[in-house]
Amino acid sequence: MSPIDRSSVWALLFMRVGAALLLLQVHGLPKLLHWQSELQRIEDPFGLGAAPTLALAVFAEVLCPLLLILGLGSNGTESALKPYHLRSVRSSQASISTKQLRISASWLISLTSSPLSR
């Protein structure tokens, strides 16, 4: 693996783990640790009830970031689990374009500067 490919892989790993940790810390853990108060505050847009809605939010904001940190459900591992995609995954992981890195970096910057996350 060339140094450019290696640095790209490390950059994507850093962004994936960083975004997952931010989601976990800012949204997921407060909901999990303050379950009773969150039951009173959570909106119920689908009419499921407060407890199922909060359980789905905790799933999405606690369990999913943990899986993302482990690499499960990310682009490369998702396709690698399917045997018929194995060849295309190897070729696509070999060259990560700078455009993909810029898009990922701008997404992470917009995520951390969003007024909704404060």
TrEMBL record:
Subcellular location: Membrane
Domain of life, source organism: Bacteria
Keyword Membrane listed: yes
Xref: Pfam families: DoxX
Name this polypeptide is given: DoxX protein
Membrane topology: Multi-pass membrane protein
Main location: membrane
Membrane-spanning intervals of the chain: 52-72
Record GO cellular component, one term: membrane
Residue ranges of coiled coil: none
Keyword Transmembrane: yes
Keywords, comma-separated and alphabetical: Membrane, Transmembrane, Transmembrane helix
InterPro entries from the UniProt entry: DoxX
